[in-house]
Design brief:
Shape: globular
Structural class: alpha+beta
Length: about 300
């Protein structure tokens, strides 16, 4: 995955201030500083308590921001961890021809830089968050990108190609064991329950930590509905080794064996993506993030070391 450079306008602190002056002048006096550059959006801090998210690298980001602005304020009050709640919507203009939003700022350190270390607390926090989020979604809920929330079966060709590529580069110590986890997941019975609300993208850079446990979840651009296994993959990707079983004990309603098998498949997919993104970062290629490597490798190790 690489940035497509679809926003020709350079995003600067002065541009953010100008947009605020034009559309939300009561916020324009707050200090503005860069927070982060993500796959889809740049995040600029706005004072101590707010942030401005502007799309910059993918065309799909426009619709995702609008969906986030529509749905996340509905879901946020029931969630037990802080999330970036949309406060304002900025419309496209001559100065910046794309929509943008103002959200609350969630403090914490991304888990790719500061992994969770307190297994019990982190597992309980993740389980509580997903228990609260995974409620039946309305028919109008967004559809997941890249197959998220859907069936694993249609993703096998892509996944096995990714695994082969990573193996050729020496990035996966035991590709046969990883393939076995994936093939078991693909043969698990499909989800037959209602489509549930999903975060859709619980990789370590989208989960914040403090004092060894989870303290926030960010970037709901992939908010969608479907099979909860997509989100349950986070147990292997985010938690310390002894946190996975604790998570499954705490998550409600408890996932059945088939759902856990599918979740392991989603975790394999996420971990392999992290391995390749990290390798790109190590070699200075666009979109690469070296910090994604350690959590991705740890997830693969956990997955091949434990049964479904």
């Amino acid at each position: 995955m690489t940035h497509t450079g679809t926003t020709e306008t350079e995003i600067t602190a002065e541009l953010v201030r100008e947009l605020l002056r034009d559309q939300h002048p009561d916020l324009a006096g707050h200090p503005v500083r860069l927070g982060a550059r993500g796959w889809d959006n740049q995040v600029w801090r706005l004072g101590d308590d707010l942030a401005v998210r502007l799309p910059w690298a993918t065309r799909s980001a426009d619709a995702l921001l609008r969906e986030e602005h529509t749905w996340l304020p509905v879901l946020a009050p029931a969630l037990p961890l802080p999330v970036p709640v949309p406060q304002r919507l900025g419309e496209p203009s001559e100065r910046f021809p794309r929509p943008w939003i103002v959200t609350t700022w969630v403090p914490g350190e991304p888990a790719d830089r500061a992994p969770a270390t307190e297994a019990t607390d982190a597992a309980d926090a993740l389980a509580g968050f997903l228990t609260a989020l995974h409620l039946p979604a309305p028919d109008a809920a967004p559809v997941g990108r890249f197959g998220r929330g859907g069936s694993l079966s249609g993703l096998s060709g892509e996944l096995l190609g990714t695994l082969a590529s990573a193996a050729r580069q020496g990035l996966v110590p035991d590709p046969d064991a990883v393939r076995a986890v994936w093939e078991d997941a693909v043969t698990a019975p499909e989800w037959t329950g209602p489509a549930l609300w999903l975060h859709g993208d619980l990789h370590p850079a989208n989960v914040l930590t403090a004092d060894g446990t989870l303290c926030g979840v960010i970037d709901f651009g992939d908010l969608c509905s479907g099979d909860p296994a997509c989100d349950l993959a986070a147990a292997w990707v985010l938690l310390p080794d002894d946190g996975v079983e604790r998570f499954h004990d705490a998550y409600r309603p408890a996932a059945d064996a088939a759902t856990r098998r599918r979740a392991r498949g989603w975790a394999v997919r996420q971990a392999l993506s992290g391995v390749l993104i990290a390798d790109a970062g190590v070699h200075g290629r666009p979109g690469g993030k070296p910090t994604w490597g350690p959590p991705a490798q740890a997830a693969l190790r956990r997955l091949v070391a434990t049964a479904a």
